[in-house]
C-alpha cells in the first residue's frame, strides 16, 4: 500500500508543478511597464533605471499640452497629445546613462524638460 501512496504523491506534486511553472514563465515573458507623466516642463518620474536585454513598454501620458520623449542614442521618439497616452516597446541593448528630452515644443520651459534613463547589466 505504501508504494502506491508514494507514487500518487509524486504524481500529485508533478501535476502541481506543471500547472504552476507555465504561469510563472508567462509572467516573466511580459515586458516591464514604465509609466511616465509629462506636464508643465517636467517628466514624472525624472529618473528611470532599466536592465539591459529586458523588454520594456514605455508609456508617456501628457497632462496639459502635447509632449514627446526622445532618446536619440536609443532611437526612441514617442509623442502624446494633450490628455492622451502613447506607448513604445523596446529592449535596451546597451548599458549607460541616456538623457531624453521633450520632442514636441511645449512652451517656454521646453528646453529644460529632461528624463534620465539608466540601463544597467
Automatic annotation (TrEMBL):
List the InterPro entries. CcO_II-like_C (IPR002429), Copper_CuA (IPR001505), Cupredoxin (IPR008972), NosZ/Cyto_c_oxidase_sub2 (IPR051403)
The UniProt keywords, alphabetically, are: Copper, Metal-binding, Signal
Quick one: where is this thing mainly located? Answer: other
- Bilayer-crossing residues are none
Domain (Cytochrome oxidase subunit II copper A binding): residue spans on this chain: 29-121
* Protein localization: Cell envelope
A single Pfam family it belongs to is: COX2
Q: Name one GO cellular component term.
A: membrane
Q: Which residues form the signal peptide?
A: 1-27
Task: List GO molecular-function terms, semicolon-separated.
Answer: copper ion binding; cytochrome-c oxidase activity
Protein name from the UniProt record? Cytochrome oxidase subunit II copper A binding domain-containing protein
What species does this protein belong to?
Edaphobacter acidisoli
